[in-house]
Write a structure and sequence with these properties.
Length: 105
């Protein structure tokens, strides 16, 4: 994957996350902010989830209250290089846990 493909894929990922969080913003206190290559998801209890793109490694990194994850793009999915789980599943579990509200991506 070249740099342009990586940015297109990760931009789409971050936009999808932002759009979904906007849907939940009326139900729970959750905010999303993007600053360059980093996305911050903030919850009412002051916990955060941080997602950033590692352009040199062509990875997405996800930091949650409980753990950190690194994802590689395989077969059109972001897969955790440690657990083998899909990015969306881990994000969903983490956001639900930190918000106290069932969040589905």
């Amino acid at each position: 994957m070249n740099n342009l493909e990586f940015y297109n894929i990760t931009n789409s990922l971050m936009l999808s996350i932002e759009n979904k969080i906007d849907e939940y913003n009326n139900k729970i206190d959750i905010e999303c902010e993007i600053n360059n290559d980093v996305m911050y998801i903030s919850f009412k209890n002051n916990s955060k989830i941080i997602i950033n793109r590692q352009k040199f490694l062509k990875q997405i990194w996800l930091a949650t209250q409980i753990n950190g994850y690194h994802f590689n793009y395989l077969n059109k999915c972001w897969i955790c290089n440690r657990t083998g789980l899909n990015f969306w599943k881990i994000l969903e579990i983490s956001c639900s846990s930190q918000s106290g509200y069932k969040i589905i991506f």
